[in-house]
Structures are given as C-alpha cells and as structure tokens.
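Weekly structure sync, notes
Attendees: PL (lead), two postdocs, one rotation student
Agenda item 3: pending single-chain targets
PL asked that the sequence for the first pending target be pasted directly into the notes so everyone works from the same version. It is reproduced below exactly as submitted, 257 residues in total.
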Amino acid sequence: MKKVFVNSKELVVPGTLIAQGPYRAGKGTFREGNRIYSTVIGLVEIRGDMIRVIPLEGPYIPEVGDNVIGKIVDVRFSNWAVDIGAPYQAGLRIQDVTDERIDLAKTDLRKMFDIGDIIYAKVKAFNEVNQIDLITKGMPFNGGPLRGGQIVKITPSKVPRLIGKGGSMINMIKKLTQTRIIVGQNGWVWVSGRKKELEKLAIEAILKVNRESHTHGLTDRVKEYLIKRLGTLKEQGVIENIPKFESKGGESNDGKA
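Predicted structure, written out during the meeting:
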C-alpha cells in the first residue's frame, strides 16, 4: 500500500517513518523493506515519487546544476581549488572558464582568478570519489570574480526560505536595502551596497531569516524590521527616503537559487 506518514516540509529526526510503497528514497533517507525512514534531522521534501530529507545542519552537499558562491584557495598549473563550504574542495579548470585557447606555459592564471577571489559558479559534476567540478563560463558577471561586497554564510537548507516563493523574500530585502545580493545554493550569500549601512542592514535581515526560518509570518516580520531600521537611518541622514515595496503572494520554502 502506498502511504505517506508525514507532511512535506515537516521536521523529522533520524529513524522517523516517512512513507511506504513504491517511492524512491533520496538523500537523507534509507529504505528498509517497503518503508522509507529518515537518516538525519531535517525537513521532508516530497516531489512526485521522490522523497528526501534536507538536513537542518551540516556541510553543503553539492548537486549537479547547483549555483554556488566560492572562494579561490589555490592556483595550480591548469586549474583552481575552490572552497564552496562542502566537505571536499571543488576544482575549476581553465576550459570551464573560457573558450579561448590558453598557452598555460605563458599564462599566469592569477590574472583570471587569484587566491581570495570570490566567484559565482555552477556545479558541473560531482562523482562517487567526491570530485567536485565547477564551471563559470556563461555565468552572470561574465564568469569573473565578484568585486567588493561581503559574504554571509547561512545554513544551506535554509536557502529556499531566504529566496521565498518566486523570489519574494530576497527581492524584498534587495529592494528595501537597495543592495545587490546573490544567493548560492551552498548557503553563501554575496551582498554589495552603495552604502555600507544598507549593506550591513541587508546582512542583518539575511541572518534573521536564517535564525527564524521555520516560523510563520516571517516575511512580514522581516519587512517590519527593515522599515523600522530604515526609519532610523533616515533620521540619521544616511538615506533620504524609504523605498516602497508591495509584497505579492504568500510565503513558501520552494524558492530556487
């Protein structure tokens, strides 16, 4: 018999019986006979016949196609080592950066990406020996490093909550703080603002979402928080006006980075 014992987005602990029947056991679950159980503390995700549990804590586990933010930690002869917050370093090869033919004997790769540079990339491959390959070719910003701004790190499983339904949460934060924000599915978020005070405020809002991600009415609370703080900044002469923002639709955890 086909049956689901918990709701989608419900919090479960290791050993929780999630479903029985012809479902596929995804990440964070295991099958025993005809039943599927959780292996981690996390949120249940049910998509069609696939069931998985997204862990609330722990390192980022890559999936092919994920858009991530990373930091260059080493420059090698023909590639770069990149920290993306996963248990293993990722690699970025020269052919996944540019279509130009590069003479590696005459080219200093540091002119393209140097140690400490922040990049926006896509997970191209992740295999059984934990090799993570990235690609920046074709990504926004022409695949170049992200200049300026700050990186804030949140729990990877809370990224959909930060984005919101149709981008509702993150667009509200960007609009009200007048900042540029890029959210990586690895939980790394790049924030850049023309005014440091607004950049700091955007980061405060992002961290608030991270802390309170499983509570109801979060979008309204974040909006109220931002408007109150913006009112203080206006009184201090940091900004002239508080941007108007009309929210659309309800809240959801189903956003994608």
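Discussion points:
- DSSP finds four helices and 16 strands in the chain.
- Helices lie at 159-163, 168-177, 196-211, 218-235.
Action: rotation student to compare against the earlier draft before next sync.
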